[in-house]
Amino acid sequence: MRFLWAALGILCLLLGLVGVVLPLLPTVPFLLLAAFLFARSSERLHNWLLSHPKLGPPIEDWQSRGAINPSAKRLATVSIVAVFALSLALGLRPLILGIQAVTLSCVLIFIWTRPSW
Q1: Rounded to an integer, what distance in angstroms lies between the CA atom of residue 85 and that of residue 98?
Q2: Between the CA atoms of 61, 64, 67 and 69, what dihedral angle is there, to the nearest 10 degrees?
Q3: Closest CA to 4 of 46, 47, 38, 55
C-alpha cells in the first residue's frame, strides 16, 4: 500500500509542477495532496517536499494556518479571469458560460476568504 501512496504522491507532484506553467492546472492543491500521500508512504519524500525552498512554503502556510500567499491569490485571480475571457472569446454556449461563471466565482470566494499568512 505504501508503494501505491508514493506513486500517487509522485503523480500529484508532477501535476503540481506542470501547473506551475499551465494556468488552467492548479499547483498548490496537487502539492497538498502529494504531501498527504507522501506522509503515508515515505517520510523521506514528505520531508523533502516540505523542506523544498519553493514548494514547501505554500504547503506549510496551508497546513499551519489555512493561509494563501497574497501574490498567489492575485495570480489565481488573473488566471481565472483569463480563462473566463478565453471562454467568452471562443463563444461558448451561454449555459456553459453560466456554469463556468458560478464555479469560478465560488473558487475566487474560497481563495479570497482564506487568511493571507
Answers
A1: 13
A2: -10
A3: 38
